[in-house]
Design brief:
alpha/beta, Rossmann fold, GlycoTrans_28_N
């Protein structure tokens, strides 16, 4: 049986595409191991899939001044040593990396042991961790045609992002029952990402009374970001996050309000959900979500609002516009040429092992 190591962590976006590949990898006869950080979000997310998990030391590589910049390089070096030992122990035939800083030592260790490496870059331009890993990769998968010029010649493969197939199997009535919603009123789902988004949460809550005149709202607000004062409002329900029920919530939803992380928006595209994107501002990020959102807006998949200029009436008007014209958005997404990413990536893995 061939062996594969999956790696990636730090946020859910660096883990969920790996999770989406697991069933097909098992079906193709691969024995899977996962390398992440000692206690990162990836450890918790992978635990449900009966895949052996190995933790290594991980340090963040920052572009700005921070006292940890003087200590984290030693964590990275320790992680490299631990990753090399794991390569010797597990003897993988290939490594698939979804990025995040924990992946850099793993990719480096694989290259040291002459093990083929495939990297997946979700955003329009490569993040720092993937930039550091690019020289060691045999192939680099990406979501957007615009990404290819940023990647080494001959390595880039346009694949799209692996989507968890169970998301396509949701039941609308089960979602309505889970939220205690009526079937006679449209539903908005608000998603702020795995860590939640304070700006998005605040904007929705400020607009709540007006929105609830015409919609029901399920709000995935992030860990520790629930507002208990809103718990008894009819037509509004909030969760820190959901797992098994997410597919049913998507099935019942008419409009999604979301951040613009690449994996999240690729899920919206696959599910053909009309959406309003509020990308993380350039002041708080490297601007990748802004580029992602503009690409989807240009293709007619999404309406986009800038976080910096977001106000209550603008949000309400945009949601109303997307709901009123939802057929146009659905039609644009239905005509998308997005590749069958899971099969393409599995075939790429097979070609290198």
């Amino acid at each position: 049986m061939k062996q594969i190591i999956l790696t990636g962590g730090g946020t859910a976006g660096h883990v969920t595409p790996n999770i989406a590949l697991i069933p097909k990898l098992k079906e193709a006869g691969y024995e899977i191991n996962y390398i992440g950080s000692y206690d990162g979000i990836e450890k918790k997310l992978i635990s449900d899939f009966h895949v052996p998990y190995f933790g290594i030391s991980s340090g963040k590589l920052r572009r700005y001044f921070d006292i940890k910049n003087f200590t984290d390089p030693f964590k990275v070096l320790k992680g490299c040593r631990e990753a090399i030992r794991l390569m010797n122990k597990l003897k993988p035939d290939i490594v698939f990396s979804k990025g995040g800083f924990v992946s850099v030592p793993v990719v480096y260790a694989a290259q040291r042991r002459k093990i083929p490496v495939i990297i997946h870059e979700s955003d329009m331009t490569p993040g720092l961790a993937n930039k550091l890993s690019l020289p060691f990769a045999n192939k680099v998968c990406c979501n957007f045609p615009e990404t290819i010029p940023y990647l080494p010649s001959g390595k880039a493969v346009l694949t799209g992002s692996p989507i968890r197939q169970e998301l396509l199997l949701g039941n609308r009535l089960s979602g309505l029952k889970f939220c205690n919603f009526t079937a006679n009123k449209p539903v908005i789902m608000v998603i702020g990402g795995s860590m939640g988004a304070v700006a998005v949460n605040n904007a929705i809550r400020d607009a709540l009374s007006k929105l609830l005149e015409n919609y029901q709202i399920v709000h995935l607000c992030g860990k520790g970001k629930q507002d208990s004062s809103l718990n008894h409002i009819t037509g509004y329900i909030q969760f820190e996050y959901v797992k098994e029920e997410l597919k049913d919530l998507f099935a019942m939803t008419d409009v999604v309000v979301s951040r613009a992380g690449a994996n999240a928006i690729c899920e919206l595209l696959a599910l053909k959900k009309p959406n309003v994107l509020i990308p993380l501002s350039a002041a708080a990020s490297r601007g990748d979500q802004i580029l992602n959102a503009k690409s989807f807006q240009k293709q007619g998949f999404s309406a986009v609002l800038e976080e910096e200029s977001l106000d209550t009436m603008q949000l309400i008007d945009t949601i109303n516009e997307v709901y009123t014209n939802k057929a146009t958005y659905i039609n644009a997404m239905s005509n998308s040429k997005q590749a069958d990413s899971i099969d393409i990536i599995i075939n790429l893995i097979k070609s290198l092992t």
